Amino acid sequence: MTNTARPLALYGFLRPKPEYADEVRRVLTSFVEPTRQEPGNLQYHLHEHEDGRFFLYEVWRSREDLDRHNTMPSLRAFMENLSTYLEEAPEVYFDTMLSPYAEAEPIPA
Length: 109
Hints:
Blueprint: E1 8-14, H1 21-36, E2 41-48, E3 54-60, H2 63-69, H3 73-80, H4 82-85, E4 91-96
Antiparallel strand pairs: 1-3, 1-4, 2-3
Domain ABM: 8-94
Keywords: Monooxygenase, Oxidoreductase
Protein name: Antibiotic biosynthesis monooxygenase
């Protein structure tokens, strides 16, 4: 039986308050490698835009995998204090991928 479900992409911007920019950078960076190891995570990327905003791009195998990720204690603690760290509510989007997701092939030696 083949899995016909499409992966779920989550992406968005977070604008830290200037006095919390370093702390937000540290916290978001600390999420990258552990999140990449979670079951169902296909991609997890953090970018810093030139205007100081952080851009997250995540791809999850399913909504259930993303929901499980969102229960992680360190992520929940950060999310519960967003108004302390951010100038405005995060700009976040969830979309089902229309293009097929292909696992990355190894880079030839």
